[in-house]
Amino acid sequence: MLILESEYQVMPIPLEPKREQPGTYFAQNRANQEELRRLQLLDYATSASMGGVLPEQPDPTIFPHVLDVGCGTGGWLIELARTTPTCTLLVGVDKNPTFIEYARAQADVAQVSDRVEFRVGDALGMLEFPVGLFDLVNHRFAVSWLRTWDWPKLLQEYRRVARPGGVIRITEGDIWATNGQAHARVFDVFLQAMYRSGHYFLPGESGATGELAHLLSRHGFQQVQTRDYTLEYHSGTPEGPPFFENIQISYQTVMPFLRKWARVPENYEEIYQEAICEMQRPDFVATWHLLTAWGRELA
Question: Cα(83)–Cα(293) distance, rounded to whole angstroms?
Fold first, then answer.
């Protein structure tokens, strides 16, 4: 059972979140209440629809030591601790101190804080861990803070902290598609911004997912494999409403990012309201393509 169940309730959010230093994240104020809620909703809707936190790994028990980079509010790591008791050391790192504080509180509620720890750290600098400590290094949806030129150094750090034979696992997603015309207009603006800002390698929907396997192979990982997911969200399913709310919040929190990097229509607010109306339709559906790529550190 996922921590965030079908009612998709979230824990109370601190009234005065700690300030975060400027960074590369596409939401300007990553510590606000809306972004905290969005990430929790996204964690739940994604893991539930994918079939778990490690659906492509046949034997998660081979990963006693796990590092989750850009862990956000901690949902992925806490769920792994709940479902895999053989994971004895699970560490989450995120640059945002508010997220880390929140993740620690979630770990206490889930009664896994004896095996799970969360640390403030900037993965674009250095991962402050010994060589070869982790059996699995994971990150999910890191294009929100990674630019194309950041990947080589980050993957080098992943290799350094992974044990020989350890797995590096990356999950990224394309821009979701819907059957709403207003959403399509927002997607076009978002794609422009992601490419022009350097978060996407290519100016299309697969601007990140299309490069994952090549990145791992190019930077020395062996036995690289991939698994595709096509997730559909409908209003009548447990995962549908939380994913739709995630979309709704996203359209507002990324506005400063869009205005900086793309041509935002003057009537954006009108388009946004139209998109919200589209999500109320009983036939509304969102489709999201994800790709998980993983390889081994054999050096």
Answer: 22
Structure tokens at 206: 């697969």
Residues 6+ apart with CB under 8 A from 273: none
pLDDT per position as a tens digit, 180-213:
999 999 999 999 999 999 999 998 888 899 999 9
Q: What does the block give as tokens for 125?
A: 């600098």
Let me know if 267 is exposed, middle or buried by CB neighbors in 10 A (0-12, 13-18, 19+): exposed
Is residue 74 within 8 A of residue 40, CB to CB? The reply is no
Question: Please, what sign has the CA dihedral across residues 97, 99, 105, 108?
Answer: negative
Structure tokens at 77: 């790591």
Report angle CA 240, 17, 264 to the nearest 5 degrees.
Answer: 55
Q: Are 163 and 66 in contact (CB under 8 A)?
A: no
Q: Which two tokens stand for residue 43?
A: 């964690």
Would you say residue 71 has pLDDT above 80? Answer: yes
CB 132 within 8 A of CB 162: yes
Q: 31 and 17 in contact (C-beta within 8 Å)? A: yes
Closest CA to 205 of 175, 241, 160: 175
Task: DSSP for 5-51, please give it.
Answer: -TT---PPPPSSPPP----S-SSS-TTSHHHHHHHHHHHHHHHHHHT
Q: How far apart are CA 50 and CA 242, in angstroms?
A: 15
8 A C-beta contact, residue 121 and residue 93? yes
In order of 60, 153, 188, the CA distances from 232 in angstroms are 26, 34, 20
